[in-house]
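Hey, resending since the last one bounced:
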Amino acid sequence: MTKDYIYDIEIFNNFFCVVFKDCDTQEFTRYEVSSRTDDRFLLREFLQSDKIRLIGYNNLGFDYPLLHEIITKQSLHSCKPWTFVKNIKIKANTIIESMRADDIRTRFKHQVSPWNIKVPQIDLFKLWHFDRKFVSLKALEFAMRFKNVQDLPYAHNAELTEEQMQVAIDYCDNDVDATHDFFLVSQKHIAIRQAYIDDGYSDTLLSANEIGISKEVFTKLLAEEMKVDQKEIKKLRTRRRKVDIKDVVLDYIKFNDPINQNTLKSFQSHTWYDTSKMTDAEKKKYALKFSVPYKNVTRIYAEGGLHSCCEAGIYESDDDNVLIDLDFASFYPHISFRNNLGPEHIPKEIFNKIYEGFYDDRKKYPKSDPRNYVCKIILNGSYGLSKEQNSFLFDVAWQLGITVNGQLLLTYLTEKLYEAIPESFIIFENTDGVMARIPRKDLHKIQTICDDVEEFCNIPLEAMECDKVIVRDVNNYINVISSKKNKVKAKGVFEVDKDWHKDHSMRIVPIAVANYFINGVTPEQTIRHHHVRKNYPELILDGEECLQSYGIYDYCKRVKIQGKDTLVSNKFHENVADEKVEQKMTRYYISNKGVQLIKKMPPLATKKGELDKYQEEYPNQTMLWDIDELKVIPDRRNQVEAGVYTTVFNKYKAKEFSEYNINTSYYIDECYKIINAIN
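The structure tokens again:
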């Protein structure tokens, strides 16, 4: 049976260590090479063990290439320990430099080819597609409410003392613990990939993101249908310099409303151009984007989709009116296979037979079944590949055929709604559906509208009554689908438990705002009593489980400092600032007493020092040239949180809640910024 180990490597000029954590026993094993110990033989023996699998975070990009060097280069085991460390450090520096390269080929050139990997790997960084969104392990620690958000304590090129070596090992342990926590979060996703591997797919799927799964599954099925090698499928592309939109608009789309007729003409008169080598001004000139006033909204049509929204406010179903949400099911895939669209380089019949097959398969499984989820990501991921130049599905004409016709069909749906129910009021239109308020007396007409539109475009529609919607704009709203069943959908600033790649700062604010709009509880009540609650049975957002309370963590924010910028905290004693350098990624909360967080940035190259200013004002006074402090251009300094104190909280400290001394007024004000924009 294969044993799983979480691992991480730390390397400095005179110190190397790798830490492994057994996922079953939770035991740590550490191997070090330095002036005080040499564990190379033991490390190599461990790596040559049968049936072990290593799990890391960006390990395919950094850690494993170093291990591969250790496994495959005999000279690293016969040299002196300091020579070993020096050579591994040179390799590490080379990898880091390549990761910063603009050329994508350079960026990945040190990754070991899958067929050359000696010890099986799972890279959670790649599996979650964080190599595209770039989510650091520190940002993930913040999102997971990890007890110790810890940055690398020393410069990567430092010479460590023995005391510092132990600190580096402790830091490595902490990273391994954080990676292990995320490994546990990832179990469902790993199981899905393992199921495909068990079904004959490549082991590389273990670290593949969702788009990668789509590629692998789709190319395999295409290769079988087209009777060609899978490698040949992966080479296919259709590249275009321009696309006349009139050539991709479906012939059967026609409108009765003159406004919508003009919208159709606007699309048909446009030509899409490849803007990849154009200036920003040229890109703006040729962009497919225009606005159209329609009823109570202004529609924004663009290459990606149609969006519109009513004025910010609270809209409710009552005795006279009802909110209705109309959505096309699997809209983009349906547009493709119901209209026989597809990349030009693949036979349409074969392509859409496979594409529609995923939709049919998905309907067989309940949403709780992982197979339903897999079919969903293949359906959505395949459309995403139409825009990727290195994808076997790349064809801009196919992409535009989907997005342009999608906008026109959504326009058609709303037109039919208004024709049947002239008193309709648009709440918002968004890519694949429309929410509207209609007179309750006309509710019986909705089914007829759906039937007519489905017959027109052969795409199923789903209609749903809603109790209340709180709208800031089309991307930020709470949709209370059913208050009795606690069925609520939240987007944008109203999201509480967000995707991992997003900023999870101040979770308490969307909780308090949701409690206010849904249950009528003031933000003051929620924020001041949040710490005594374990959960909110009356608040169930985007799922079946009620919101949990995580105490002090829900008040925390994060700040990320990049490049040459630094973060410092100032604590004043008798008007004298005690300045301390903080971590690049720092967790903190707003408190009644504490420190000021300051972001320090290097001076702008064009900024003048005090001496330059003096010389301009007094051109004949040259005796100041030797005053060094006047030659220095000061750093630029910005407060991270203007006008308030903060408490740095990188390491969790358990105490009575009142001892955290939280500035509750700050969080209440943040709630009212959102509330007042709507009320």
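The domain at 3-208 is CATH 3.30.420 (Nucleotidyltransferase; domain 5).

Sorry for the duplicate.
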